[in-house]
Amino acid sequence: MAGVIGCGPYYTRPVQIPDDGQPGTSRSDLLRASPPMFNSRALDALSRVHPAVPVIIFVPAIAVLSVLALSALSVAPFLGLLLGGYLLWTLFEYWLHRLVFHFEPEAGIGARLHWIIHGVHHDHPNDPLRLVMPPAVSVPLGAAIIAVLYLAFGPHAAPALGAGFVAGYLAYDMTHYYLHHFPARGRLGRLLRELHMRHHFQDHTRGFGISAPYWDAVFGTLHRRSSHPPAEPADAGRKGAAARSTLGRSLIKGPSANGAGRSQEKKPWQHPTSTG
User: Is 85 inside any structural domain?
Assistant: First the structure.
């Protein structure tokens, strides 16, 4: 018997997966099984991005902005503005994730856009090609933000602020990929991974600062780090995705069949390799 998981509004077909317990199917496979987003193969290809692509695009951009900044500034002001640009990015990351990525209309074009922008990542967080932002979005958005910085701060300060902002974005993208696809190393790595896995599988109304969780502490959305998952909120899971919510709970609590293995099952954020 097969089930359907994460049937988003822009799926070209339902994704059939074996029920839990079928041989040869791991939970990681279920979370990786991202389907085509568009009927057009060309459009769908643009929605799948190798994680090296942001590095290839934005490292040269950071270098150009830094050269422009240092042609007008000494090192100390440059470093100060660079840090300011990075902090500006972390605030942008938090509010973009909270207000835009998690604005969830229940129907219509808004629901479709939400699934394309972020819902697919929550449906299939193990898909390595649907994790970093596609250049078709990140490049125009980045250019628009740099233009705003020039208008707001002028040609002397804007390049350094822009370099810090873009460097912050790149650090976010790489951190996000690391948290999903590499074993967490060190106290900071384990903390970031735990907080992000809690966002995916425990309470998606908290934990919006992926690379900078201190903003969650500032704005009251930091996860409560208890040894047991909190009671499920009224809107837990994501609207209209009961199958995904069930899978998320199983990843935290362990297999549900007869309660077998529940006490031995590790939480998602404790696994040495990615589960979400």
Answer: yes
Distance of CA 271 to the CA centre of its chain: 18
* CA-closest candidate to residue 7, choices 37, 32, 39: 37
- Whole-number Å distance between alpha carbons of 111 and 89: 26
Q: pLDDT tens across 229-241, in order? A: 433 333 333 443 4
CA-based radius of gyration for the chain: 20
d(CA 134, CA 222): 28
Other C-beta atoms closer than 10 Å to the C-beta of 55 total 14
Closest CA to 48 of 40, 143, 182: 40
In a domain, 275, yes or no: no
CB 184 within 8 A of CB 193: yes
Task: Determine, yes or no, domain membership for 28.
Answer: yes
Domain span at residue 66? 2-270
CA proximity to 211, closest of 87, 51, 126: 87
**Model pLDDT, residue 72:** 92
CA atoms within 13 A on the CB side of 3: 16
Q: Are 145 and 165 in contact (CB under 8 A)?
A: yes
The string of pLDDT tens digits covering residues 164-204 is: 999 999 999 999 999 988 888 899 999 999 999 999 888 88
Domain count, the chain: 1
Which residues, including other chains, have CB under 8 Å from residue 128's CB and lie 6 or more apart?
50, 51, 177, 180, 181
pTM of the model: 0.71
Q: Which two tokens stand for residue 151?
A: 């208008």
